[in-house]
Design brief:
CATH topology: Serine Threonine Protein Phosphatase 5, Tetratricopeptide repeat
Radius of gyration: 11 Å
Number of helices: 6
Order of helices and strands: HHHHHH
Largest sheet: none
CATH architecture: Alpha Horseshoe
């Protein structure tokens, strides 16, 4: 799940979720798949994850949320997807 989000592969993310992958899986930096989608500006992945219930308010090890990172990085389309 995390790899699909990092790579921007929305189809693989959807398949992983249907197969039971955790939408809120975490890496060693406490980043979720949604956070990886934001960092890579992968809009399609962000849409899939939000549709499947990903929480944009979860904080990573630096205390940042996916929405905060999207705003900080200027990823306006993802900001809109996240409801910000």
């Amino acid at each position: 799940m995390l790899a699909a989000a990092r790579e921007g592969d929305a189809d693989a993310a959807a398949v992983a979720l249907r197969a039971g992958a955790a939408v809120e899986a975490r890496d060693s930096e406490q980043r979720t798949p949604l956070m990886h989608a934001v960092l890579g500006d992968h809009v399609a992945v962000a849409r899939v994850l939000v549709a499947m219930g990903a929480d944009p308010g979860i904080r990573d090890a630096q205390g940042r949320t996916a929405l905060e990172n999207a705003r900080r990085l200027g990823h306006e389309e993802i900001v809109a997807v996240l409801g910000g």
